[in-house]
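Study this protein:
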Amino acid sequence: MGVRTSKQKTSPTTSEARSARLRALPSVEECLRAAEQESEWKDLRRGYITLVVRRALDEVRQAIARGDTSLGGAREAIVDDVMRRSRTAIAADQPQLRGVINATGVIIHTNLGRALLPEAAIDAVEEAARSSMNLEYDLESGSRGDRDSLVEEELCALTGAEAATVVNNNAAAVLLALNSLAEGREVIVSRGELIEIGGSFRLPDVMLKSAARLREVGTTNRTHPDDYARAIGPDTALLMKVHPSNYRVVGFSTAVELHELVEIGRAHQIDVMEDLGSGALVDLATYGLPREPVVADRIAAGAGIVTFSGDKLLGGPQAGLIVGRRELIDKLKKNPLKRALRCGKLTLAALSATLRLYLRSVDIGESIPTLRLMRRTVGELEAIAGRARAILLERLGGEFQIEIVESTSQFGSGALPTEELVTRALRLTHPRLSADAIARHFRQARPPVIGRIKDDAFQLDLRTVEDSAAFSVLFK
């Protein structure tokens, strides 16, 4: 009981001291007057300095609340500490969005921005950013133009479609197509294709927002042509097929092929829409990669509308591409939602440049970074790994153990989900640092390096590192 009484007697004293230090905190205005004496801040806006000072004050307040007594209770000392924290924050200030080194081995990494753009697309974005563009201006007639025309001809040439339009991502493409073609009516989909992808994107939820009504047929693992045929009624607007780009159903399973679905649709005068997700413009098998459905083949098979991403297997900017019959595309273009979902000039500049590469380049596998990273040989990766290991041993010091190991890379973002690529990685360990601690150390580098933790060690997968020289600037 005596011990408890002692604690009860000292606690109020500690609480009072903490309260006194909190009362001694200067106001924001008092700190801003001190900031006016900082000559190197004279070109900074007052609003920005105010934001930094508020953050510094919050840090001091939280430190005092935790029981930190290092500042004492002198107001001048607290102001000096706020200024010190503010100077540190301004010196270290960087944009929230900044470049990182992707050493995860995931080629199309959603969290790291997906596809790396081709150089031609980067040049096109830079030009579009620096100058006015004919985004919606017809240079021939001198009148208002259509921004879709900047990429429609290339998309039609590459896919064999009659018409095309572009929105800001593939989820938007699906939303726009369903709302334009099936609002208030039924869309028939196999249960085995009611997908969910990253970010909790669920096809049934998108259909609900589009105001189309979902009609499920078949079972999770087996759907037959008769399932679709029996479900068709006077309220049926579309038959829909969804490519399971981020999963596979294996074993005792049956799916209705696109050509079969098209035959059913033609018999009932109902269009077929296919969401390809990743969407390849070329046969990846040509480059020694697993084959994915090619958009042109789906159009040739009779799909009325095909939607796919611009930033996955295509290797361009984030965009939702929609190709198909002209009468259907025209309905999409007339939908008021199209304006809300449209792309800006930077996206269209990058997309146009990427599509032109597909049309013009004799070696598209080398011209598109996504395809180039997929095609890297083990020999190339071993050479990069050797150089990167030597650089990191020099930068990190002798306590780090770095070995070259065999591992596997992933395509990422739902593309080719069951396929992996043999790769080479650097496996880093330290006698006193955990794998998590090493990973944190690399994330704090400039630029940050994002790797992965595997088998209780931190790994850097070299498949997604363009050049070992990327590591030469670290930890200087």
In short: The longest strand covers residues 401-410. Residues 1-12 have pLDDT under 50 and may be disordered. DSSP finds 18 helices and 15 strands in the chain. Residues 132 and 345 are 10 Å apart (CA to CA).
